[in-house]
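hey so u asked for the seq, here:
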Amino acid sequence: MLKQSSYWDSEEHVPLMKLNKGFLKRENLEPAFERAMKWLEAFEEPLEVKAVDWPNPPQVPERIIEKDVERTFTADEFRNRLSRTLTLLNNEFGDYHQGMSFLVSFLGLFLNDDQIIAIARRLNHHKHFIPGYWRHEAVDFARDTYVLNWLLSTHNPAIHNHLAKVGIMPTTYPQKWFVALCVHVLTFEALFAFYDRFFARGVRFLFQFALGFFKVLQEAILKTENTAIVYGYLRLDPTVVAFDDSIYMAIIEAADTIELPEIKQDEDLEAIRKKMYDTYFGARFEELSKRNAQAEAEEDSDFDFDEDAEAEPGTECEICNMMAPDYWCFECRKFVCSMCNDKSREPHKKTHKMVAASSAPPEAFLPRTPVADQDLEEVEEKLSKLDV
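ran it, structure tokens below
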């Protein structure tokens, strides 16, 4: 068995096994390792796995990587390994996105570093996968959400119209499918099946997966016009909506039934991508990007980074200050992650009125003003009297 099996011999597996659902156990891990090794051979073009030339001295990780590593593991052994790999990829790719940490941490349960980096490079560089998705300004991802929206209008017009009706924009929901590659969405059983197909089919399978998802959950989604509940379905969040565990594999199986005659050839997909980009982004976006880049360059020399500074509203859960937020709570007036919501961590309660973080009102993203102790007591007293 591979060296990474030390993970399974430790207690480190406990916090990350929420979606395992009994699929992997310590006594039956060998088939999982063998199946993961087959991913290296699933790519249409052979994958080049070679020994990584690690920098010496080690590269210093960026603060955002340190935060993501802290969110993922608790033991130094696994944090150090993940940090080293993400830092190398960040420096090599010239940019970083949290989705990279999700993929690398999951693959790290079964593969060695050389193999993980080879896979990450293929996904980030090859046109058949997701180049441009793992960037802080992921224009290619945003464009492809509109490709999905266009496909929905043909394959499932009922869902297409319903999402528009409840105010869910194409860019606000596929991140966990397309960028984070379903690590926090699917059970381990379904996630293995997802990667079996994704590594073999590339980005086309992401579109098939999304269409299969809506095929399975169409009836439930169409029954509600509550935006927060619809987002609960889109994230398969059991703290928001109830569904049977069989739903995960049902989505994979439905994806296998989806035909995409519109994008059989690379040229077909590129033509649709160009149309979506020109329609929804175009020259205005390019001009804005140029202005932002120029402004950043001008401010670079004067920028004094404070590593102890507070995160900007909307980037972190304001209860635990660790996880990415999933909700905006109108009563706490804070961004809240699913874990804190599920556990009703003080001062937040699951019964509070909330919306998806991506649907938070504009004032949610304004800088927070420190509250004096006396004012805080008054706020807490008012909250305690609210009838929810």
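Residues 71 and 322 are 6 Å apart (CA to CA). The longest helix spans residues 203-222.
lmk if thats what u needed
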